[in-house]
Structure formats: structure tokens, C-alpha cells
Design a protein that fits this description.
Blueprint lengths: L1 E3 L2 E5 L3 E2 L1 H15 L5 E5 L5 E2 L1 H16 L3 E5 L3 H9 L7 E3 L2 H9 L18 H8 L1
Helix pairs in contact: 1-2
């Protein structure tokens, strides 16, 4: 386990199944109990994961979200990424190439995709243009 400012990076075990998943969950539980937990799960060593392992990841996310936090995945292998996509869990997690990129994402404000528009009460020409028009 590595800690970087308020973001905690935790390595996921090589196998994430029911037995390993429960042990992993016990290890992560104290990290998720604080206020606004920011957790990066480094999956670089993860070789095999099953549905019970996916459930463990979702449980971590649920616990973090209850406390207004987030869990992000990093270094997911193509095989694990395919399973996450197949189970449609890839839509729940932000997935990054490296743990460092995932950590940085916590410090970078999210861009807003909505276009910038003027409020309903404003006019492009300003107050003078409104007076001239009336």
C-alpha cells in the first residue's frame, strides 16, 4: 500500500475471487471508513478475477460513495478490462493506464461539457442595446 497526499493507492492481489476478495475487502475497509475516501486500486498484478471479485470492487465503490468519495482503477489488463466491459462495470469506474494518472485525476478538476451560455436575463449587446430596442 502506498499513500500519496489524501489519495491512497492500493495494490489488488493477483487473484480476486471470493476467498481473496474477502481478505482484500477486510484490508480496504478501514481506508473507506474515513471522510471522503479517495482510493486508487492498482490492478497491475491482477491476473484473474471472477464475478465475486467484481462484486468486491463494486462494494469498495459503494462504501466510498456513501462517504462522498471515489474509487478509481489503474493498470487493468486487457483480459480484466474485457470482463469489466462484459459485466458493464467499466461504466461505473474511471479506469486509467497507470496509478499515477489515477492519482492525478483526483487533483484535477473535472471539465464541464456543457456549453457556456448567457443567462436568460442577459442580452448580447448589454443594457444599452436593450434600451435602444424598446
Amino acid at each position: 500500500m502506498r499513500e500519496s497526499s489524501p489519495v491512497i493507492v492500493m495494490e489488488v492481489p493477483t487473484i480476486l475471487n471470493d476467498v481473496e476478495g474477502q481478505a482484500f475487502l477486510q484490508e480496504t475497509q478501514p481506508l473507506l471508513e474515513g471522510g471522503r475516501p479517495c482510493l486508487v486500486l492498482d490492478c497491475s498484478h491482477l491476473q484473474r478475477v471472477d464475478s465475486a471479485g467484481i462484486e468486491v470492487l463494486l462494494h469498495c465503490m459503494e462504501d466510498a460513495m456513501k462517504r462522498d468519495g471515489d474509487v478509481k482503477l489503474a493498470a487493468v489488463s486487457p483480459a480484466c478490462a474485457a470482463l469489466l466491459e462484459l459485466m458493464r462495470v467499466d461504466r461505473v469506474f474511471e479506469i486509467f493506464q497507470t496509478a499515477q494518472e489515477a492519482v492525478q485525476s483526483f487533483h484535477t478538476p473535472a471539465a464541464i461539457d456543457a456549453p457556456v451560455t448567457l443567462p436568460w436575463y442577459s442580452h448580447p449587446g448589454g443594457l444599452d442595446a436593450l434600451k435602444a430596442a424598446s
